[in-house]
């Protein structure tokens, strides 16, 4: 039957509201505000069917007023900005051009294309032109980058230059050094270098993508092989590691004793740590017998603890290893589960895409806002909103000579624009909810498939047909509300964590010690709460898949069932984590080593097949990281399988006693570990 119906209805309503929010954002938003630069009049550069259609680049009248490329790209630089068809390619000043416009009109015609549209009055005084910012005081050789004109910086013999010149006229009677632009130059050159590196990386991907796919395919096959081999090697790998640790600690004990005995009779070695006090050179402590004695005692304690744990927990370790082998066997019977993470990935990709597009449209949902830009710092009208159509008729230009009404940003005063921030929060919250729901759906689907394997008395004869698809159908049809409920709780905690991180970022540098301590404590507490909720939700979804109860009941039963088997939980968790981590390292490392030898032409048989690369580490890192993610995707299914089988195993022990009336459903290997000679026949 359906569970948590109220939450299911709320979830559907929220999704419909989310779709409505996206539609409203798409109606009001304009992503061109992000893609295209905007001039001082709020018009897009390069926009079709406008006067700027062929003017795709933004030009700054006085780039010296812009502190850095970050200001140029993200904020409004305090200077007039115009859309132009191309960037300047020469040095020139308005003073020189005006003085020679009669006998060199070509220079004036070139210069005025960087003036305000329609301005063609070279007789106007220089002071008035610069005051009204009709034209820039100077132009310098520039190159377009991110659709903006940046100075064409270069380095010649270690000296920063622009068009091979180290000085230039600023158009106001001064000769300035190119180093005045050093702060902007450093940032711009770094970005330009990054662009060059980016192009080379793109080229490497273009000619090596099929080899990368081959590497990822090899990683997929190795992951499958590792999961299959766990049925036979889980115990061997674990005990090799354990005895290896015991051997290493044993060697450490012997080495400490050897050092302790070797220092006997050496002057000063019998001093205590208390006698010499605190020393910055820690090698001093290694000359003391007491130090090596302490190390030896600590290592002996660790060795004894490990051996005692192995003695007293040996049966639980055997059960954990048997469950790992059983998980490998279950996946062998239901191979389709290995590819279900692709479905989860696609659902999350859809959520991320919808959230990102909606966020962009919300961020660009505004009308142009104009503000007074004054050259005088004492102008009382500076940064106040204004109307460019009526600005020249106001007293602002008289009280603040040179002031202009220029485009500042996109915003608005309507009810919709006032709540843009709230809509962005809602967008983020529903996004977190949907992502957690997609993950919950995957966990419940896999749990249902693996539970059908465990509760099949005769394996594999009694396993239902298409167990994965049947489990997915049950989860969607009956348990959408329960999955949404668990995802909602987790999304609320995650949103609070996001808000805390935002506050910490905004208040950084202004908060006192107590505020930093409080924020740190809150962030730590909510991080722990999120981890705990993920653990509870995961096991609750398993119980939902098994019994079909609502979320709260399933979470309570799963929690108390785990608490009654807390030692088994701890042992199984650590054994599983170790083996899966080892598998990820083996897959990623093995494929990475193979890719390294291939891309560095160290495999003679394939030396002629290796593409010519700018950076061989580009496909190499891609293969290594991709292999790790592929292995993680396969092993996450395996981890879910082991957790499901463990809960089923605990339920089996509590509900059944192995009698004819209540036979165990566990495998024969688990039966033998529990001390049973053979399975009791199921009652007809």
- Strand order, largest beta sheet: 1-2
Low-confidence stretches: 67-75, 676-684
Calculate Rg over CA atoms: 35 Å
Approximate shape? extended
Helix content: 55-70%
What fraction of residues sit in β-strands?
A: 5-15%
Q: What's the average pLDDT?
A: 82
The class by helix and strand makeup works out as mainly alpha
Distance between the termini: 28 Å
What quaternary form is this? single chain
Largest sheet: 2 strands, antiparallel
Instruction: Please tally the helical runs, counting DSSP H or I stretches of 4 or more residues.
Output: 21
Quick synopsis:
By secondary structure, this protein is mainly alpha-helical. The chain contains 21 helices and twelve strands. It is extended, with a radius of gyration of 35 Å.
Features:
684 residues; two-stranded antiparallel sheet; 21 helices; 61% helix; disordered C terminus; transmembrane helix; membrane; cell membrane; transmembrane; glycoprotein
Characterization of this structure:
There is one protein chain. This protein has 684 residues and is mainly alpha-helical. Among the domains are: 38-187, no CATH class; 367-411, no CATH class. Helix content is 61%, strand content 7%. The chain has helices spanning 5-28, 32-35, 69-74, 94-99, 105-111, 126-132, 182-262, 273-276, 289-312, 314-333, 340-363, 396-399, 415-418, 420-454, 467-478, 480-507, 513-547, 551-563, 566-599, 617-655, 668-673; strands at 57-60, 81-84, 92-93, 138-139, 142-145, 148-151, 153-156, 159-162, 167-169, 175-177, 367-373, 404-411. The strands form 6 sheets. Strands 1-2 form a two-stranded antiparallel sheet. A two-stranded antiparallel sheet has the order 3-4. A two-stranded antiparallel sheet has the order 5-6. α7 (182-262) crosses α19, α17 (513-547) crosses α18 (551-563) and α19 packs antiparallel against α20. The longest helix has 81 residues, at 182-262. It starts with a helix and ends in an 11-residue tail after the last helix.
């Amino acid at each position: 039957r359906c569970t948590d119906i109220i939450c299911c209805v709320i979830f559907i309503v929220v999704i419909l509201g989310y779709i409505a929010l996206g539609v409203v954002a798409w109606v009001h938003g304009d992503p061109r505000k992000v893609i295209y630069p905007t001039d001082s009049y709020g018009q897009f550069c390069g926009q079709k069917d406008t006067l700027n259609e062929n003017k795709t680049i933004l030009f700054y009248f006085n780039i010296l007023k812009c502190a850095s490329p970050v200001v140029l790209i993200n904020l409004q630089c305090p200077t007039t900005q115009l859309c132009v068809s191309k960037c300047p390619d020469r040095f020139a000043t308005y003073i020189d051009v005006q003085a020679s416009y009669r006998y060199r009109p070509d220079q004036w015609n070139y210069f005025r294309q960087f003036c305000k549209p329609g301005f063609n009055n070279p007789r106007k005084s220089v002071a008035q032109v610069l005051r009204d910012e009709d034209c820039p005081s100077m132009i310098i050789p520039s190159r377009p980058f991110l659709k903006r004109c940046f100075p064409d910086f270069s380095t010649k013999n270690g000296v920063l230059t622009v068009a091979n010149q180290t000085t230039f006229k600023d158009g106001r009677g001064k000769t300035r050094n190119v180093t005045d632009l050093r702060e902007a130059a450093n940032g711009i050159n770094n970005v330009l270098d990054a662009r060059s590196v980016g192009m080379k990386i793109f080229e490497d991907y273009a000619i090596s993508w099929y080899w990368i796919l081959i590497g990822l395919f090899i990683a997929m096959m190795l992951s499958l092989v590792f999961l299959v081999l766990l049925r036979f090697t889980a115990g061997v790998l674990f005990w090799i590691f354990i005895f290896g640790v015991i051997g290493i600690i044993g060697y450490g004990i012997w080495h400490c004793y050897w050092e302790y005995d070797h220092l006997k009779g050496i002057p000063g070695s019998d001093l205590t740590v208390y006698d010499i006090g605190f020393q910055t050179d820690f090698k001093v402590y290694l000359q003391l017998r007491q130090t090596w004695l302490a190390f030896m005692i600590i290592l002996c304690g660790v060795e004894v603890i490990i051996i005692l744990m192995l003695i007293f927990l040996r049966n639980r370790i055997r059960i954990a290893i048997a469950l790992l082998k059983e998980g490998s066997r279950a996946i062998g019977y239901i191979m389709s589960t290995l590819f279900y993470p692709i479905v989860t990935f696609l659902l999350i990709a859809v959520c991320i895409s919808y959230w990102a597009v909606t966020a962009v449209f919300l961020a660009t949902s505004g009308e142009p806002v104009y503000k007074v830009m004054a050259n005088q710092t004492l102008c009382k009208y500076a940064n106040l909103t204004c109307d460019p159509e009526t600005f020249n008729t106001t007293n602002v230009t008289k009280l603040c000579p040179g002031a202009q009404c220029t485009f500042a940003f996109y915003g608005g005063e309507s009810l919709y624009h006032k709540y843009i921030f709230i809509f962005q929060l809602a967008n983020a919250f529903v996004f977190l909810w949907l992502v957690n729901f997609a993950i919950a759906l995957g966990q419940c689907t896999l749990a249902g498939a693996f539970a059908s394997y465990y509760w099949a008395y005769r394996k594999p004869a009694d396993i239902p047909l298409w167990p994965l698809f049947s489990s997915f159908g049950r989860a969607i049809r009956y348990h959408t509300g329960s999955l949404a409920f668990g995802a909602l709780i987790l999304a609320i905690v995650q949103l609070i964590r996001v808000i805390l991180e935002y506050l910490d970022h905004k208040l950084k540098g202004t908060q006192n010690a107590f505020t930093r301590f409080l924020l740190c404590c809150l962030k730590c507490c909510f991080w722990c709460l999120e981890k705990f909720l993920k653990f509870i939700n995961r096991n609750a979804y398993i119980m939902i898949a098994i019994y079909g109860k609502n979320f709260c009941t399933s979470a309570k039963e799963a929690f108390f069932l785990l608490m009654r088997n807390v030692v088994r939980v701890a042992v199984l968790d650590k054994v599983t984590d170790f083996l899966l981590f080892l598998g990820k390292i083996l897959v990623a490392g093995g494929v990475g080593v193979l890719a390294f030898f291939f891309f560095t032409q160290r495999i003679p048989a394939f030396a002629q097949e290796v593409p010519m690369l700018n950076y061989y580490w580009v496909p190499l890192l891609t293969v290594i990281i991709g292999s790790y993610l592929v292995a993680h995707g396969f092993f996450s299914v395996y981890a879910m399988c082991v957790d499901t089988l463990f809960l089923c195993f605990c339920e089996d022990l509590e509900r059944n006693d192995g009698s004819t009336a209540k036979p165990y459903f566990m495998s024969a290997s688990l039966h033998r570990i529990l001390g049973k000679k053979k399975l009791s026949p199921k009652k007809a």
